Amino acid sequence: MTPGIDTIFILNKSISQGKRAGIFSTIGTNSGVLLHTLFAALGLSLIVAQSALAFSLVKYAGALYLLFLGISALRSRDKKMDFDKKAPVKESDWKNFRTGFMTNILNPKVALFFLSFFPQFIKKEYSESPVPFIILGCTCALLGMIWFLTLTFFSALFSQRLKNNPGFNQYLNKASGMVYVGMGIKVAITEK
Question: What is the 3-class SS of 16-71, one letter each residue?
Fold first, then answer.
């Protein structure tokens, strides 16, 4: 629940594209958490944690993806947000899901979190079993869903209040782009 890339991403989607985009982005992000859980349970996250090459590949792939999203948002001059509920959604539900999923999966800090944090809550005699990792991962995903959906609903309410401010649209596109670029740079300079 601490503010990080996923929190900023969900807030950005919910404010800029509305509640529906935030919901599908939340589902995508937490699907990424479940995949990280599976990786940790199978020991694959350990490879990323112990291999400088694997860590760097995941890190730079994630950074490039976020930079791509940011530059795309910065270049979209004519794209105006429409907060009207009857207006067509700018991005498909599938794209919002996929973006949330990829943002989470390509963040090597999530894999490191699972490897460094979860074992503290697993008894030594069960540390070889994948079941405790899966239970903790599913709990983490459930709590994440609750937290991100709460953020989604409140930020979507906030964005509804701004729908009559036409100057806000251009500002939000630029701010969204800068957020993605900033997240990409942060991921790129992450130390192991």
Answer: HHCHHHHHHHHHHHHHHHHHHHHHHHHCHHHHHHHCHHHHHHHHHHHHHHHHHHHH
The amino acid at residue 67 is L
pLDDT in tens, 125-148: 877 788 888 898 899 999 999 999
Structure tokens at 23: 């919901």
Q: Is 151:10 a contact under the CB 8 Å cutoff?
A: yes
Cα 134 to its chain centre, rounded Å, is 20
In the numeric block, which tokens belong to residue 90?
A: 């700018």
Note the residue count of the chain: 192
Q: Which of 3, 1, 9, 20 is nearest to 105 (CA)?
A: 9
